[in-house]
Amino acid sequence: MSNIVIETRIRLARNLKKYPFPIRLGRAGKEEVANIIIDAVKNSNSPLADELDVIWVKDLTEYERASLVEKRLVSPEFVSDSDGKALILSKDRTMSIMLNEEDHIRLQIFSKGFELDKAFDIADKLDTLLDENLEFAFDESLGYLTQCPTNLGTGMRASVMLHLPALKAGRAVSRIAGNLQKLGLTIRGAFGEGSEPKGAVYQLSNQVTLGISEKSAIENLKNIAEQLVKRELDAQKRMSASIEAQDKIMRSLGVLKYARQISCDEALELLSNVRFGINCGLIDSIGVDDVDKIAEKIRPATIMSENGEMSAEQRDKVRAEIINKALL
Fold first, then answer.
1. Cβ atoms within 10 A of the Cβ of 144, count?
2. H or E element in which residue 129 lies
3. What are phi and psi of 52, to 5 degrees?
4. Comparing 42 with 238, which gets the higher pLDDT?
5. Which of 16, 160, 282, 313 is deepest in the core (most CB within 10 A)?
């Protein structure tokens, strides 16, 4: 998909049949549920079982929690408190299971690029293995039972992360968003509802979970994503032909290479311009995967989780050093 699709995610919400939803459980009840699920995952026949880290939220620093959010491995709500909450994380970071967020289980499978079918296949197989040991709450009419009614049915949220600098520049995304709602989809910032699309990165996902199969939801998302990618590529082709756009791209690369301090917001915007330039063939000294890795490393909490507490000015200096080293 010409580097427009950054990442694919499949998320499944599940609850244990014999226990109340997390909101009705105290700390002891949540810890009991978490340990039951951890044992089931470790004892499953999944090849992932031996490659997992179990992390209790109570053992994380404030910055480590925020860094997990920045990397989109957990939700802000999940780390907002630590009572009975645990995270099961694969060592390659392609699987994340939040225990006792809104539901007992929030299983997430990540895949680089446009890999909806692959990600769903992995999630579906692991879901089946866990259900055999845990027995999920399920109703013949309503499907999987979840704390929030908007997740009833499949309990699935499929999403793709899109880099749409040309459509953003042309102010087309807001117009597209209205039409997508009619199709049962939503487009938001990279961190979901209420988040800003910094660096022109958007999350496109399904909204409908009831009365539709997982495969139908994925096909619908796939078709719309392909249409958005085509529109973005057409817009990029037109934009990149102008000397103004080319100058902006190359100036962005120069600033990133030589800046001595830089804010996170500015860095993400400049990295977006560079990513655009790579996709248009104007820059060949770095790849889009390298840009994406830089964008992950320079978030405020991620910097502090590795370097300790810092002022904004100190973070800006370290951020510039990280970028300089990656690009020079």
1. 23
2. helix 116-134
3. -120, 145
4. 238
5. 160
